[in-house]
Amino acid sequence: MNKKVLLAILMMLFTMNCALQAQDDIDVDEDDIIVTDREGEEEIIEFPEAMTYDLDSLLNLYMSKTYLDEDNSCRMKDENPVFTEEEYIDRLSRLPYVMEMSYNSVVRSCIDRYSGRLRKSVSYMLGASNFYMPIFEEALETYGVPLELKYLPIIESALNPRAVSRVGATGLWQFMLATGKRYGLKVNSLVDERRDPIKASYAAAHYLSDLYKIFGDWNLVIAAYNCGPGNINKAIHRANGSTDYWQIYPYLPAETRGYVPAFIAANYIMNYYCDHNICPMRSRLPESTDTVVVNKNLHLQQISAVCGIDIEELRTLNPAYRQDIVPGATEPCAIRMNINDINKFIDMQDSVYRYRADELLTRRAVVEVNDVPTFTHHRKKGRHARATYGKRSRRGHHSNIGTTKRGKRNATAKRGGSKKKRGAGGKRRRR
Questions:
Q1: Helices and strands (DSSP H and E) totals, the chain
Q2: Is 156 one of the annotated active-site residues of the chain?
Q3: Annotated catalytic residue: which of 46, 49, 156, 193?
Q4: Whole-angstrom Cα distance, residue 418 to residue 195?
């Protein structure tokens, strides 16, 4: 009897161990939101890609290293308080917005991510917002778009102007190539204006304005910004024509289901960060900048070396130039510099253009052809083919040395008016 009980206990322990092992083997993606609905079923929703960025990559940006510092005078405890649902609902309802800022469990999950695991990134974004928000607001105002959409780059790129997504979306506003070109952003091997904060902001505001003309609802607009108008139209059709984002929600791609909630959470955290004990990084505004137009090809390292400007500063102020080359010879191009450096460049531009031009600008306009015998393969009908080496002589004729299939060398000289040799059987041999 004791043996049977012992065996039963061992079997039970073995079964429990297998169950725990199976649970441990489940790959839980930290970049997913797991939400339990009213029926108790779990739903997996993807966080936007920008909510997964490494903080170190943001802090290593030139603007971060040069103009952002931790606020050592901040005395708030690095703790995330717990609030009730009613408090979240009240705070969201008090935001002075045109757009609807609804609360639900998905929005709460995104708020928890920003106020918890991403609180250091929020600290960075609060500091970096001093650089970019005035640009965003001016562009959005130009196209009559609600100013709360200035927080869209928070979930698109985490305010990283060099961000490139896994599908190739680029810049602060994460434009895909085709959409960027459609809205006037130039993209080629040397220039990518999706990385230009000013031009991309105006293009994004224009695009958002056009999407609103299609859908007439700002939640659908930002959802379409994420997954494209086609996917929104398909979701509306599957939801029997409903144009309420939360009604078409089940029919959207996984990332888009997390996109609008993340946007609401970004608006929340950028306004109520103090309530969550998040200290913004201190920012020092850069010097005023201006542009100078050039009509010759120029390398940023030429400007850096001759004018004594940090190359990283030039790259940060001119992010559209992908290879550090300004293609002024193609069309006039603007280079942005600090105002004090503009005059220095104008005074020294002849020296700038000459500095290491042959090394840094290596594209040749004219090249010499290597004049050596060239190998030519002549096709021939039939079983045999012959390869020749030909070099044009002074009199304009070719001297050919060929090798037949059997390896016999055959040297001939083609001269004007000479008779062509005949092969076996009296047939004329082609050359």
A1: 17, 12
A2: yes
A3: 156
A4: 67
